[in-house]
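the three lines:
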Amino acid sequence: MPANDDVVLSIRDLSKQFGRGCEYCSDENYELQKNMCPHCHTVYAVRNTSFDLYKGEILGIVGESGSGKSTLMKMLYFDQDATSGNYNLPEDLTVKGNVFNVSSQKKRQIRNEQLGMVYQNPILGLKMDFSSVTNIAEKLIASGNRNVGEMTDRADHFLEKVNIALNRKYEAPKNFSGGMQQRVQIAKALSNYPPILLLDEVTTGLDLSVQADVLELIKEIQRDMGVSMIVVSHDLAIIRMLCDRTMVMLDGEVIEHGITDQILEDPQHKYTQQLVYSIL
Amino acid sequence: MGYVAVKGGAHAINNSVILYKNRRLENGADIEVESIKTNMRQLINQVMSEASFYDRDTAALAIKQAEGNMEEAVFLMRAHRSTLPRLYYSTVTDTREMFVERRVSASFKDIPGGQILGASPDFTHRLLDDALKESADGPKETIEYKEVPFNYELDKLPKVIDYLEGEGLFVREEENNDEPDDITKKAIEYPSTRSQRLQALTRGQTGAVTSLGYAEIRGYGISAHPNIGECRVGQQPVHIDPDDDYGEYFIGDFEVTEIDAFMPDLDEDDSDAGDKDLMIKIGYGLVFGQNETKAIAMSVLDYSLEHPVPGVATSDDEFVLYHIDSVESTGFISHLKLPHYVTFQSKLDRMRQSKGEQE
Amino acid sequence: MSQNFAFLDEHSKKEIRRKTLKAIAVPGYQVPFASRELPIARGWGTGGLQLTLSLIGREDILKVIDQGSDESVNAVNIRNLVQNTTGVAETIHTSEATLIQSRHRIPEVPLKPFQILVLQVPQPEPLRAVESSERKTKMLHGDKEYSGAFIKLFEQIMKFGHITDDADYPVMVNDRYVMAPSPIPRFDNPKMNYNEGLILLGAGREKKIHAVPPYTKVESLAFEDYPFEVEDFDDKVCRESGLSGVYMDELQDEKTGETYYVTNDTSYMLEKLNEEAVQHAGK
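prediction for all of em together
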């Protein structure tokens, strides 16, 4: 394990519930139906989750749909409020303590400068009618850049990095294929050189060959830029290809975590075993 | 004395106004305001409702002055309304005390108190009536009809919803007798409150409210068929309490149309997952005068705004409430006629700049 | 029917004045107010008119312009309404007026202390084109999150090679709020910056009041390498007066088919012509 001072993102006791809860499910030992209280129907999407992300690593989160992995990502990117928990970004010297508690203005700044997000659905990450170069510049504008030349240079640099021909930079993502849209999202997410990149099911729904290209790109970026990443996927094959460490989520809880190879070779939890044996 | 300003604008405006006023008179007889009041009852109902101003005499005058143009008549009423100080709010009134003139339920054949068809164009055949070409002086003879004996007192009729409550199919919402927000005194800030929504809907343009309500049930919102539990038209007594000491004064009866639209919905308090009960929820409409279509559409929109379907325009309070007001929508659309020379010159400058750079 | 002085009842006027004070206290911030219906149509200047009617006193001297002209039909119509309900004195001279209501222009004569300029506003929300929801734009203003406004301009540069926003060009007020200056030409934007009079902006249909108090910084949005540009009349001379460096109307000579230009602010042109005539006579 790397030393503690290499932690770039740290989560403690993070929970998200939908619903008010009741006298039954407020007891931690009460047995839920998957992640829902059978009595009051409160959904515990994420329960008491803790983990650290280390500098330069790719951390995988794997689980079936409904396991809470996407809700977790939304909370990390402030798309959704957390019910409770601690979120620290030790490398960001402009904020102290739990970043869930900072102002919405500060949260916007953290999103723009500390984090990059690539959504499964490009509509969430891009303005589909605006040119690709403007989409990439958006993050730079949001963090205060007011120099058009500088921003277009930066956009060109990242479009090249994600293998999009510069003669298409004025085209809107709506004219692009699914794989290209994801590349534009990645270029946008990286445009500010954020220390942390969040990738939520970014290759789901793409053709296999296109998937392979995008995954190769992600690895290359991690190698070249040393960005720390959290990769969410339901697909263990993708996790195996990309991730140094992996957490397995089920019904809102982390049931297993460790070095990816170790989890793949020697899964402890019954659910993980099923997951691993189904792909091997 | 040197150069002086040209007074072209003032002259042109004066003459335009005179021409417009003359038009009404140049082709024959002047219509009496009293005739409008007695003959154009339905038009007056719509104008009062959209103007949110209950006064049949003023409405008749506005209609005459507007030459029957709805948007103009409503506009005249609203402008006049702005000059009147608003001194009191009425006390809470219960429509169970309405003196009912018409009352139908589409949900039950027999309702306690019975169906009362009353006066309605619903079952007239829409054939032009040549007999109306002749107009008689003085009141015409009315056609005789037979009174049916009736056992209920018309101002104590139970409501259909009371019956469903007895069955346990409807749970009465907790009463909220707070003074409602008044959107004519304080602008709506979003998200809106229910009282703001109801007020905006009841003031809404009849056509706009109807169209949006239609879209909501036809295929863009709940896309389901509401059941009209009860449609009542009648005289509603209104009281004020000037000193706030329960010393109430009766200030008059208002003709209103009230709609309870039944919407089947999940029982949120039911805890059996996968086996939830269906409950009746209500969409509510209440408008000045006999305006049944508008009142029904209002009840649909009240429901769609209370129980939003994500991504649907008719569930979005900003979309609905910003666009249904007659004075606002007709004003903005018609302002496009105004001179925009200065802004257009500015746009031309930009267009020439683009062209210049391309060449 | 008999009307109150300045049409509105006094309760309404008081409410509008209170909201106006709030707008002055927070420059560029849109204060919601309970807009009243007036005898002229919504969208035809009722926001400005409500400000004028709530502020006007018997001693005021009123000037009303539309498209730079005191004689434009809409200006005449509004002036008639205010005069019929108040009987106050009117003027066409900017420097004589205590209260000026205008649509689409700021006069060429700079405002002086204690003068009030009321501008009519169709759309007070500068972010509406990028975000249609009011509750969201309210949050964006709260967070001072204005990238949407800049992205719109950036995309124009990408598409057309320059910014294409024409009139109603957004400004940053007091380094805090991005504001719609009303559809004045860009030519008039710089006049707002540290001007000496009070500028009030009223949107009747949208029920908002905003303000630029005297001596307030007002900056048009721009990029470092794509500066703000006003309309270009550099090589144009007014055919009537010989003036240049003013906002011009573009006209066609019906006989020759030739395009020519005339000063848009007609009362200013008149004043200049008369000054010249006096000088000429003096020689």
